[in-house]
Amino acid sequence: MTTSSYDGRALINGQRVAALDGQTFDCISPVDGRLLTQVARCGQRDVDAAVAAGRAAFEDQRWRGLAPAARKRVMIKFADQLLAHADELALMETLDMGKPIQYARSVDVNSAANCLRWYGEAVDKIYDEIAPTASTALALITREPMGVVGVIVPWNYPMIMAAWKIAPALAAGNSVVLKPSEKSPLTALRLAELALEAGIPPGVFNVVPGFGTEAGSPLALHMDVDCIAFTGSTRVGKQIHVMAGQSNLKRAWTELGGKSPNIVFADCPDLDKAVAAAVGSIFFNQGESCNAPSRLYVEASIQAQFLEKAVALAPGYVPGNPLDKATVMGAIVDQVQLNSVMRYIDLGQKEGATLLAGGQQVAPVAGGCYVQPTIFAGVTPEMTICREEIFGPVLSVLPFTDAADVVKQANASVYGLQAAVWTRDINKAHGVARALRAGTVHVNQYDEDDITVPFGGYKQSGVGRDKSLHAFDKYTETKTTWIRIDSPVQS
Length: 491
Known about the structure:
Layout: E1 10-12, E2 15-17, E3 24-28, E4 35-40, H1 44-59, H2 68-84, H3 86-97, H4 101-122, E5 129-130, E6 137-145, E7 148-152, H5 158-171, E8 175-179, H6 186-198, E9 205-207, H7 212-221, E10 227-231, H8 234-246, E11 251-255, E12 261-264, H9 271-283, E13 295-299, H10 300-313, H11 335-350, E14 354-357, E15 361-362, E16 370-371, E17 374-377, H12 384-387, E18 394-400, H13 403-411, E19 415-416, E20 418-422, H14 426-435, E21 440-443, E22 458-459, E23 462-463, E24 476-484
Parallel strand pairs: 7-8, 7-10, 8-9, 10-11, 12-13, 12-20, 13-18, 17-18, 20-21
Antiparallel strand pairs: 1-2, 3-4, 5-6, 6-24, 11-23, 14-17, 15-16, 19-22
Helix pairs in contact: 1-7, 2-4, 2-6, 3-4, 4-5, 9-10
């Protein structure tokens, strides 16, 4: 295997640097097993340096001291830089984590750029408040940036997940230290370079690649980090909250796992659309999406018809070479994750579920990590594949006959990220949507989305919301300034 020209060094205080101890790790492409580059394996000292750079930038106000309109202009230029380098970033994303190049280009790059632009546009349109106090006082309510924000993002949507967090954090005037997943670190490093080119000052946006225990934990435990924002597994998210409490009680915002229920009633207004959405949403991004509708509840009277249509669509998602523009399902991110997906498929069969489609590893590209789109019927609520997040292209189908019972089943999960209901009955749609314990409920569609709406979940799917104006609440402090007016002028 040969190393590519990608620069795997960290970016701290505006400079590309090796890890202070010289350690690196191999960045392997799941497309074909090639070695893409060696990446800086950052540790405590590197995190310390990045946080110190962020703190210095915050204290001298080189970024937060700019007028909101000035930060807006830079954020918009940052977004433009992503689009100007769209083909480069899309290729990097595909090689690094295996998603089809057509989606890396049309979805990931565009969504990340749109996010940066939207928060840049928003920052000079948010007004502070004056409280309705008595005439003897003037109470000002203002937002201030928190300081140094630590960001830890997952491997499934590296650019988008980073943008959801760094965009509002930077727009609000904070400094950021980003720790990308060791499975897909390359675009994060390139984003930081593009930020510098757009005019974000050195030290304001730093990237420290590395492993969770070696770079992520020091960031979450750091006494000079004011806020930690994390997207990833519920298991690690719980550890992040513990670390925040063990250190300086920093704000901790976690967007975690999901096992989203998709409920299709017999009076679904368009069965073909419901089938296409159910199949397309679970197989999109190889099923490596926290909001994937992996639990499909179909009313018993239409289940046979639904499953026949779903199984017929599955071959359209057979994995192909992610670099082929016609490919719709690519590679699993690495061998570890592929082994995990295959273990769940094996468990599903051992526990009595009926394998209707897929279930096998395939090799459209030698050396890569690929698995067929998989559909299980005959699934029961106690089965492992119905309870645990698989993070792969595996769909579990369960029948139901009663609206109250299916809502109970849907809510019987530690997660509460997203859900969907398909029905032509407006009363049923509203009633079920209100009863579902999820941060987002889709009605007669799945995955329609916009930067203007919040994203996050109930229960163990996390704390706080990404996207929309609500995200500014995560990265700003609310200050009250109470001014006493002793001698009001009489009119």
